[in-house]
Amino acid sequence: MKIQYLGHASLAIEANGKHIVVDPFITPNELAKHIDFESLKADYIVLTHAHQDHVYDVEELAKRTGALIISNAEIAGYYAAKGLNSHGMNTGGKFNFDFGSIQSTIAFHSSSFADGTYGGDPNGYIIESEGKRIYIAGDTALTYEMKLIPDTIGQLDLAILPIGDNFTMGAKSASIAAEYVQATKVLGYHYDTFPPIKIDKAEAKSIFFSRHIQLILLDIGEDLTV
Ligand code: NI
Ligand code: MN
User: Among 16, 19, 54, 56, which residue has the least CB neighbours within 10 Å?
Assistant: First the structure.
């Protein structure tokens, strides 16, 4: 799988030739001005929760591409009511798509749309494709439930964890989360976009390094392959 960082918590994943966009918040992000949103490909749009900094660009992207929106039942229903294609899931559930599978995980956060509509429970996701397994934590606190992932689902090739603090885990909690999920390689996200989540990147890397975990911080637009 190829994972491109689009800034904040937005990712573009290529898996078995399919394009999966996670939590698109690109056009309002000053740090992501160089990302060409108009030519972004999407067969699927995966959403962790309904907050504006995760769904801002969903409608435009889904209308242009016809992508299937995968999220919890409430978010899927919200977009279905707007005439968009959606697939509703709920916490703990797994489903096979043509690129591989997605399993919804527990995330401790909140979830409502900008218009006040209830957004259901927030989630993380495990994506399995091309014989690899990645964990996208979504916005979450550190939670003991993360230990269930390696115990019940299996070893991860990459964990994508929020590290910006204030709204989610910061680097210290995220480094403990990485231990809980038994990841040795972590892609950090959900940092630097807004003043309360600006971080010292070198300090964040050293916090992970002290636990023998590699923290990868990509430039916006840069990608990695697992
Ligand atoms: Ni949020
Ligand atoms: Mn967020």
Answer: 16
Q: pTM for the complete prediction?
A: 0.98
Q: What are phi and psi of 201, to 5 degrees?
A: -65, -40
Where does residue 74 fall: left (phi above 0), alpha (psi -120 to 50 degrees), or beta otherwise? alpha
Interval 180-217: pLDDT, tens: 999 999 999 999 999 999 999 999 999 999 999 999 99
Identify whether the C-beta of residue 74 lies closer than 8 Å to the C-beta of residue 118: yes
* Strand partners of residue 148: none
Ligand 1 centroid, distance to 24 Cα (angstroms): 13
The token pair that represents 222 in the structure block: 């840069």
Distance from the alpha carbon of residue 110 to the mean position of ligand 1, in angstroms: 7
